[in-house]
Specification:
By secondary structure, the protein is an all-alpha fold. The protein folds into 2 domains: 169 residues, Cytochrome Bc1 Complex, Chain D, domain 2 (Orthogonal Bundle), CATH 1.10.760.10; 176 residues, Cytochrome Bc1 Complex, Chain D, domain 2 (Orthogonal Bundle). The chain has 17 helices and 5 strands. Helix 1 packs across helix 8, helix 5 runs antiparallel to helix 6 and helix 12 crosses helix 13.
């Protein structure tokens, strides 16, 4: 490769290209079982929502909403309705559904917006999670650990305690949920046979555990959502012609003078750390149980450290053009608006209006959707926390950065490898 890379390695601002060895190995046959589980509503309390509902391949592995419509809703993406009658939703999902791209990469040590699932020696199981010492043994990846927790969340997949035993068990102890879901799965003959075929240690349906279930789901997610075939990947691998002139200029700004890579570092564009961006607060928030007001303090809710207030994990930017709305609460539907927010968080915070989010109308929640945004005291607390200093870029430079962000979109990988199954063994409807 000539041209740009003819200078010394020290002068080259770009990261090394991603390789297959940068990703944890997962069994491809097991991924096929995980595909069915990922799309099967059998894992939810009321058998009406699947992992794929909020992490749909149709919406870049997210749901296309600022704040999702979880258990009780009907449909997919921005057209998803909040349901009706006794089963209608009671609140929106507190945070934006994170994209799943490349989460099988070895460098990911922390997941969720607040990092509440991470590798850690604090417990003997090797992870720090809301389950603490009750986390089951045998989980083979951080992705598998993460997959346990939406199953226990009332408004995501568990449902109301008055509706089903799964949700009721969650109020007893978090690990009481998983044996109930496991029993459902292993009582389906097709699943029982597939687990026996996929795991050497399973000789009888009673051998199936929640660990086998989420390990399979993780294998599917890691395979299906691995994306390292973007124009930027080709450029890093040595193709000088892979980026357009505007994309190359944007890449040089991103990894250079604009300073984007200080947080969005490396080939996956994340430092895996937590930063306060002064994003406007709305919706229910992930309020701590002892808070007397509706708010979301981000990483502080996990660490209990005041310096972590309003900080959220830096997301990877792979396929970012496909994964809007943007921010931990989906404050911006426009990628350009999100970029501009980074340039002057305070000005953007003060200028933000609810129209910049994408929230399907829910008449019985409308009166409370933006109450936190109107709380002057909470606005003052939030506005005191911004880790980004204001900087100035021209409209042309912003356009170039946006062009570079488009160059992070995969080619064939975004079509998936296994895709959406026509049916699932439970016989329930596939979204």
């Amino acid at each position: 490769m000539g041209g740009l890379f003819a200078t010394s390695a020290q002068a080259n601002p770009f990261p090394a290209p991603l390789k297959s060895t940068d990703f944890q190995d997962f069994d491809r046959e097991l991924a096929k079982l995980g595909q069915l589980l990922f799309f099967d509503p059998i894992l939810s309390g009321n058998r009406n929502i699947a992992c794929a509902t909020c992490h749909s391949p149709d919406f870049g592995s997210s749901d296309g909403l600022s704040l999702g419509i979880g258990e009780g809703g009907v449909g997919l993406g921005p057209e998803r309705s909040p349901g009706e009658g006794r089963s209608r939703i009671r609140k929106r999902i507190p945070r934006n559904a994170p994209a799943l791209w490349n989460l099988g990469a070895r460098q990911f040590k922390t997941l969720f917006h607040d990092g509440r699932v991470s590798h850690s020696d604090i417990y003997d199981n090797g992870f720090s999670t809301p389950a603490q010492e009750w986390l089951p043994d045998g989980l083979d990846s951080l992705l598998a650990v993460q997959a346990l927790f939406p199953l226990t969340a009332q408004f995501e997949m568990a449902g109301d305690p008055l509706e089903n035993e799964v949700a009721g068990a969650a109020y007893d102890r978090i690990d009481a949920v998983w044996p109930i879901i496991t029993k459902r799965v292993r009582n389906i003959p097709d699943y029982a046979q597939m687990f026996a075929d996929g795991y050497d240690e399973i000789a009888d349906p009673l051998d199936i555990s929640i660990v086998h279930i989420v390990n399979a789901i993780a294998a599917f997610e890691a395979l299906e959502f691995q994306s390292i075939d973007s124009p930027f990947d080709a450029f890093l691998a040595g193709d000088d012609q892979a980026l357009s002139e505007a994309q190359l200029a944007g890449a040089q700004l991103f990894y250079g003078d604009a300073g984007c890579s200080e947080c969005h570092a490396g080939a996956l564009q994340t430092d895996h750390e937590f930063h306060a961006l002064m994003l406007p607060h709305f919706g229910p928030g992930r309020t701590r149980r002892w808070d007397t007001i509706v708010r979301d303090v981000g990483r502080m809710g996990v660490s209990d450290q005041l310096e972590d207030a309003y900080r959220f994990r830096t997301p990877s930017l792979r396929n970012v053009a496909l994964t809007g709305p943007y921010g931990h609460n989906g404050a911006y539907t426009s990628l350009e608006a999100m970029v501009r927010h980074h340039l002057n968080p305070r000005a953007a915070f003060e200028a933000w209006t609810p129209e910049q989010a994408l929230l399907p109308d829910v008449s019985w929640l409308a009166a409370s959707d933006f109450l936190p945004f109107e709380d002057k005291l909470e606005r003052a607390r939030l506005s005191r926390r911004a880790d980004l200093a204001a900087q100035s870029l021209s409209d042309e430079e912003i356009s170039q950065i946006l062009a570079f962000l488009q160059a992070l979109t995969g080619r064939e990988s975004i079509k998936g490898r296994l895709g959406r199954p026509d049916r699932v063994p439970s016989g329930l409807e596939v979204d």
